[in-house]
Structures are given as C-alpha cells and as structure tokens.
C-alpha cells in the first residue's frame, strides 16, 4: 500500500522534475528498492552497465510466453516507464526506432554511484561524532522507538479520537500536524467539533508503513504552501530511508527546505533533535523504514499486547489478534485502547477483560460504519489482515457467510457504483482489441469489458497511451523494414 501511494505521487510529477530527483544517489536507490517489482529490478540491473540499448527482442527471450510471465513483463516495463527510468531508444537514426530500451542517464549514473559508493555527494547523510557530556541525554534505539511510538500514536489517537472523544494520546498534537490531517481529509471540522471522515477511517485501518506514506504524501502536496521545494522534501525523505537507526547525523549539509522540515518531522516522530545539540538529528525507526518493508513501529498501540507503558522491542513484529466466528461474534485479544476503539468503529463492543475484548458484528454497527464512510471491503480487509495466528492458516480465514453478509449490508444502501476512467473503442481488429485488453488487465487498470461492442473501460489512460504509441511505432518499423526488403 505504502509504495503504491508514493508511486502514484511520483507519477503525478512533471517529467522534468525527475532529472532533479534522480540527481541524488540515495533517491535513485530508494526508488529502485521500494517502487520497483522484482522483474523491473532485474531489468535495471541488467541494463545498468550495458554499453548500448537493450533490444526489445532480447528482452522477450528472457520471459516465458505464458500469460503470467508476459503480464509480469508488461507490469515491469510500465512501472519503469511511468517513473521515467526506462525510455524507448530513438537515437542514431535507426529505422527500428522504438524497438529498444535505454535507462535514463541521470538515474543510471546515480544508481551506479549508490551501489559502488562513488563520489562525495553526501546524499546518504553525514554521520556526526558525539562526545558524551555530563547531564546529556542518552539517545539509544530504545529511546528513539519510544519517542516515535508516542508521537505517531498521538496522531492516530487524534484521528480516532474525533470519533471517540475519550481517546487522548500521551503527547499533544501540534497545530501544524492537525492542519495536515484536516488538509488530507482525515478529519473534518464542523465549528469547534472535529469528526473522522471516510479517508480517516481508511487511514487508521492501514498498516503503519502505509499510514506514514499516506500522511507524508499530504505533506508533500502542501510543501509549496509552506514555502518548501517538493523535490527537496521528497529527496530528503528518501535519504532518511537510507540512514542507520541510532546514528546521529549532522544538519550542516542540509538545504534551507530540509532545515525547515526538521521541526515538522520531529512532530511526526520521524526524527529526534536533542535540545542540547540542535545541530544533530537522529532518524527514528519510522524514518529508516520508509524505503523498506520492515515494521515501522514495533510494539505500538497497534500491536495487540501494547499498553501505554509498553517498551518497544526491536525486531519484534506485530501479530494478529482477532478471531471472528460464524455467529458474528468477535474476540479481540488486545489491551490496546487504540485497537479497541478502531474495532468499535464497525463492531458493537460487548465485554472487556484485561487482555480480551468481545464484540459482535451487527447490521446496525456495519451500517453505522458505512454511513460514516468506511466500506465493507475495508472492514473485511482489516479483519483478515489482523486475524489471530490460530486461524490464519485456515482457508478461508474469515467465515464466508459473515463476509457475504457484510457486503450485503452495504449493498442494501448502495445499488450502484460509479468509477471514473476512460472508454476505449474502435481499435480495429479483434486481435488488437484482445491484446489491448490483456495489457490493461496486466497493468491493473481494466475496469470493464464490453466485448460485444469492442469497448473497454480503464481507470488510467497515460499507460495505455504509451502502449498504443508503442504498437504504432512497431508497426511503422515493420512496414519500413518490409519496404526496404
């Protein structure tokens, strides 16, 4: 989820901004590690030291002709092109223009420097030497985890607390953070009252890594209003993802935009700046996991056994805590007030014990959640993702009758579903139509197919536009080749 949000944001950037963005080796490495599927990484590494373009025909020999392999190839090429990493080679006046690929020079150079450690760019931060002083606070990994947990949970408590006034975090939420939450649509203000929104429900139901990126995307979008350069903001976030937890870094090499970010990131729990040495900053686990799949907040209040005094345990992982029975009864093995409050958004709480809360999914509780903006699919996904290890090996994990009923309760109020997108028609031959449909399906943008009319509906057009241009270029090259023969 987190990488998808960041990918969507990168796709929205003008093409010229990628030249600046990929100038930093840390950014190129972060995009390579976090945004690319496995096959795309393989293609990039194969081309990184190639002396010339990579012929499309050669790439096709790498991939099996079965449907799944072709789909994976198309997805990999699409992601690389959308991120302006891969381009059609149209140089040297070749007749077969468009039948080979080249890497973006700026990206390739930056990635090579990142992998080999070349240059003195300092894009991976400048570690600082700290000499212990009397009375100076000791900055340990445990301390950083506790600080990050408290800061991030304060944000979650504020969002969920807008639906449950009894919830309050351990530390106050800054006014700037509140403004971001309101700007992102996670909460809405009605006079003096603040209420959780549909986006807010979706936000709190996400995994922590996804929550962080969702929030940071709002921060990036608001950067121009804060007199900050969005590209420098994004580059610094990618840099933080490459830093080492527990290591102090100097602020001397940071730009004015990045200096301005430090206070905001401290409010979010991504960094710590010791009051005694403001020229240093420590990235927390929230920051160092921005470009990885590691848990961003071990033993947080989103962990089943977490309490307000829980100390983080590095290396631990969050476990599921929910058991759902066929009679709609729900058993939540948790002592976390935040998790219990999230459950109360769509379930009717029954009994609470020190480490167990019982609840029940009812028509009224589900409809109340739906009316507030949460969807049946979000509820089902949350229950599945946070299912107890005891039932996680079952197939299916959740009782099918309960899953169907949750969806039926939503359908009772929603008879029609609308989707924004683009209608594609008049493709010529049936073979062209089927090939385009398969490509759209491989990209994950296909919404509806009208085979009788030769139409299909997609959610995105940019990738399909490149596909049609590529088909046209190949056909032109084939015609020129036939004419020359």
TrEMBL record:
Cellular component, GO, one term: transcription factor TFIIH core complex
One protein family per Pfam: Tfb2
GO molecular function, one term: ATPase activator activity
Biased composition (Polar residues): 295-314
Domain Transcription factor Tfb2 C-terminal residues, every copy: 404-469
One of the GO biological process terms: nucleotide-excision repair
Top-level taxon of origin: Eukaryota
Disordered: region residues: 295-316
Keywords: DNA damage, DNA repair, Nucleus, Transcription, Transcription regulation
UniProt cross-references to PANTHER family, sorted A to Z: GENERAL TRANSCRIPTION FACTOR IIH SUBUNIT 4, TFIIH, POLYPEPTIDE 4
Protein name: RNA polymerase II transcription factor B subunit 2
Species name: Cryoendolithus antarcticus
Top-level taxonomy: Eukaryota, Fungi, Dikarya, Ascomycota, Pezizomycotina
């Amino acid at each position: 989820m987190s990488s998808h949000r960041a990918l969507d944001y990168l796709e929205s950037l003008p093409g010229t901004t990628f030249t600046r963005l990929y100038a930093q080796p840390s950014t190129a490495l972060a995009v390579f590690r976090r945004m690319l599927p496995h096959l795309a990484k393989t293609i990039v590494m194969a081309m990184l030291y190639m002396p010339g373009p990579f012929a499309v025909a050669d790439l096709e020999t790498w991939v099996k002709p079965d449907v799944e392999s072709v789909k994976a190839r198309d997805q990999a090429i699409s992601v690389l092109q959308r991120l302006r990493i891969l381009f059609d080679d149209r140089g040297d006046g070749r007749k077969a223009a468009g039948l080979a690929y080249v890497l973006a020079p700026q990206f390739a150079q930056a990635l090579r420097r990142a992998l080999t450690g070349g240059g003195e760019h300092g894009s991976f931060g400048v570690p600082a030497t700290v000499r212990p002083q009397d009375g100076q606070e000791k900055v340990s990994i445990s301390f950083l985890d506790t600080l990050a947990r408290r800061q991030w949970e304060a944000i979650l408590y504020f969002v969920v607390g807008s639906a449950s006034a009894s919830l309050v975090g351990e530390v106050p939420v800054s006014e700037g953070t509140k403004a971001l939450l309101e700007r992102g649509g996670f909460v809405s203000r009605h006079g003096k009252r603040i209420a959780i929104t549909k986006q807010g429900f979706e936000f709190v139901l996400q995994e922590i890594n996804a929550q962080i990126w969702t929030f940071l995307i709002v921060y990036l979008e608001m950067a121009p209003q804060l007199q900050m350069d969005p590209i420098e903001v994004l580059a610094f976030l990618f840099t933080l993802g490459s830093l080492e937890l527990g290591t102090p870094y100097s602020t001397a090499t940071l730009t004015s935009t990045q200096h301005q970010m430090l206070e905001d990131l401290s409010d979010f729990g991504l960094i710590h700046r010791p009051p005694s040495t403001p020229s240093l900053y420590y990235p927390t686990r929230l920051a160092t996991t921005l470009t990885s799949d590691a848990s961003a907040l071990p033993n947080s209040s989103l962990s089943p056994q977490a309490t307000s005094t829980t100390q983080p345990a590095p290396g631990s992982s969050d476990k599921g805590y929910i058991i759902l029975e066929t009679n709609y009864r729900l058993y939540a093995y948790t002592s976390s007030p935040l998790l219990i409050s999230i459950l109360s958004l769509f379930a009717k709480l029954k009994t609470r014990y020190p480490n167990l809360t019982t609840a029940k999914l009812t028509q009224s509780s589900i409809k109340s959640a739906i009316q507030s903006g949460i969807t049946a699919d979000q509820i089902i996904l949350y229950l599945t993702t946070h299912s107890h290890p005891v039932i996680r090996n079952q197939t299916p994990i959740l009782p099918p009758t309960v899953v169907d009923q949750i969806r039926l309760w939503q359908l009772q109020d929603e008879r029609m579903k609308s989707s924004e997108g683009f209608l594609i028609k008049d493709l010529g031959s049936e073979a062209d139509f089927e090939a385009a449909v398969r490509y759209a399906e491989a990209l994950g943008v296909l919404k509806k197919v009208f085979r009788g009319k030769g139409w299909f509906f997609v959610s995105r057009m940019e990738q399909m536009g490149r596909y049609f241009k590529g088909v046209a270029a190949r056909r032109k090259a084939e015609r020129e080749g036939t004419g020359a023969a």
